[in-house]
Amino acid sequence: MATGPTALKVSKAKLKNPLLITSPQEASLYLAQTNTSMAPIIKKYGLCELKWRKDRHSRFAALVETICFQQLAGNAARTIHGRVVSATGGRITVESISSTSDEQLKSAGLSANKIISIRSLVEHIGNGKLKLSQVSKMSNDDVVEHLIQVKGIGPWSAHMFLMERLQRLDIWPTGDYGVRVGISKILGKKEVVTEKQCLALGDSCTPFRSVLAWYCWKSADDKQ
Fold it and tell me: Cβ(152)–Cβ(91) under 8 Å?
């Protein structure tokens, strides 16, 4: 449980206009003071540590990484992604992926479906159907629609891209099982909610549902 400086920071923080909040930490401070269901969760786990992924070279590389992580546990996905980076010469770009053979990608640990997805991503960028330079100007829903035209990129992958790369604070990835497990625990439900049931359960944390998702993951991973 978060105590000491973190708890003190939450209790003494000046309530900020939600329209002016730009970071997960500020958002969690706001929710701690305005949402009675979230207050004890934030006190327990501390301020949200959702990381903006500025370490990746490009939006294309970010999507390739997301494809690598689909339906895999974190450690396994990180290993495979690292091998893909090595196979492409240390930097994932459209050009480096295009010059890397399917056999090399398979040897790195990618499944046939993920290779097809990455090739589809390259194709959509090459023919101009996917314009990653313009997604920052799009609404959340429009970004999802723009990305899912690529084979193998569904709403979950689009939501991770929105949260981690585009730094959107109000993404509610109900297709993520960890989110559904976490929200069920937070709300004291005996069974894990369905994706449909989960949709409305994030409403009380709008416009900071990305932050709620982070606390759901923390709760889901908590074995207590």
Answer: no
What CATH number does domain 5-52+171-221 carry, 1.10.3630.10, 3.40.50.300, 1.10.1670.40, 3.40.1550.20?
1.10.1670.40
Q: What predicted TM-score, i.e. pTM, was given to this entire model? A: 0.84
For residue 26, CA distances in Å to 7, 20, 23, 160, 168 come to: 14, 9, 5, 20, 14
Q: Which fold has domain 59-164?
A: Endonuclease III; domain 1 (1.10.340)
What's the Rg (C-alpha) of the chain?
Answer: 19
Q: Which long-range contacts (CB under 8 A, 24 or more apart) does 121-124 make?
A: 121/60, 121/63, 121/64, 121/67, 121/150, 121/153, 122/94, 122/97, 122/98, 124/149, 124/150
The amino acid present at 161, given as its one-letter code, is F
Give the number of other CB atoms < 10 A from CB of residue 19: 7
Whole-number Cα distances in Å, 86 to 70, 105, 108, 123, 143? 19, 10, 9, 22, 29
Residue 191 has pLDDT above 80, yes or no: yes
pLDDT tens digit string along 45-63? 999 998 766 554 589 999 9
**pLDDT tens digits, one per residue of 135-161:** 999 999 999 999 999 999 999 999 999
Residues composing the chain: 224
